[in-house]
Amino acid sequence: MKKTPTEPTWKYERGEGRHKHRWKNDYAGFEPGDKGPVGKCPKSMTEDLATKILNQGVPYYDDPGDQIPAKIYTVYKGVIYEAAPTMPGISWHGYPWRGDLKGRRPLPGKIIKWLRRQAEQAGHGNEFEQWLNNYT
Q1: Helix, strand, or coil here: 120?
Q2: Backbone angle region of 132, left / alpha / beta, with phi > 0 → left and psi within -120 to 50 → alpha
Q3: Rounded distance, CA 66 to CA 25, Å?
Q4: pTM score > 0.85 for this model?
Q5: Is the pLDDT score of 5 beyond 60?
Q6: Confidence check: pLDDT of 113 > 50
Q7: Is residue 56 in some structural domain?
């Protein structure tokens, strides 16, 4: 099935009772958590906006033959977001991404290149580069 801007393929789902990735600030960032930094989305991030952003993302597959992405990566206002499946192949939960966490694999160069192009087209290339500099 081919994605189109008017017909979302992927559904954003915060998840019942999940408030872990939200905070009172209107910018993306991180707070300390028991297992390391916790990504926080801007308070203005609505479910509709999250769905739109998700459907502009690029899928990442663990194995080339996989039918369902392991993650979806997207960019909004220069911030990289990662979405993990809540119901594999149906719905996704997203949060700000950072690559400087111990044990985390770096994003493939093709994904960074794609996200950079998206950020530049949206006029947020500088913010994207700043995010990469801060969190990789």
Answers
A1: helix
A2: alpha
A3: 37
A4: yes
A5: no
A6: yes
A7: yes
Q: Which residue has the higher pLDDT, 68 or 14?
A: 68
Structural domain includes residue 5:
no
Q: How far is it, in rounded angstroms, from Cα 56 to Cα 2?
A: 12
In the chain, the number of structural domains is: 1
pLDDT of the residue at 1? 32
The rounded distance, in Å, linking the Cα atoms of 9 and 84 is: 15
Find the domain containing 33 and state its range. Answer: 17-135
Query: Is there a domain that residue 10 lies in?
Result: no
Q: What's the average model confidence in pLDDT over 25-46?
A: 91
35, 104 contact by CB (below 8 A): no
**What residues pair up with 76 in beta bridges, in sequence order?**
79
Helices then strands, counting H and E runs in the chain, come out as: 3, 7
